[in-house]
Every structure is written in structure tokens, then in C-alpha cells.
Amino acid sequence: MMTLELDDETADVLNQLATEQHLSPAQLVKSALLAYLEDCQDSKRAEAAYQAYLDGGKVYR
Fold first, then answer.
1. Does 28 score more than 90 pLDDT?
2. Distances in Å between the alpha carbon of 56 and those of 2, 26, 35, 45?
3. Which pTM was predicted?
4. Which of 18, 36, 50, 60 could disulfide-link to 25, CB 3.0 to 4.6 Å?
5. Rounded distance between C-alpha atoms, residue 38 and residue 51, angstroms
6. How far apart are CA 49 and CA 30, in angstroms?
């Protein structure tokens, strides 16, 4: 388990959005964090694939 401290303004925005999406604030944060982490992993994989492409003598145009 992890604890996250938010300033009042951020907490208010989080609570409002969570209510609008019929989620708990924790569910919304978890969902957003997982999406962000997946995007980071995808970006790293894409960079590695592109580097492998360049290392193979190919040139991107």
C-alpha cells in the first residue's frame, strides 16, 4: 500500500473527476498511473526498436 499527499486544489479536482466517472479517487489515480506507466514502457520499446532499425543500416525518411 502507498500513501499520496495532495494539495487541497489537486484533491478537489481529483474528487470531482472521480465523482463524475463514478470511481473512487483511489481507482482513478490507479487507472491514470497504470496508463502512464504503460505509455512509458511503450515509448522505451519504440525507442529501442527504432535504434535497432537504425543500427541495421536503415535510415528513417
1. yes
2. 43, 45, 31, 16
3. 0.77
4. 18
5. 20
6. 28
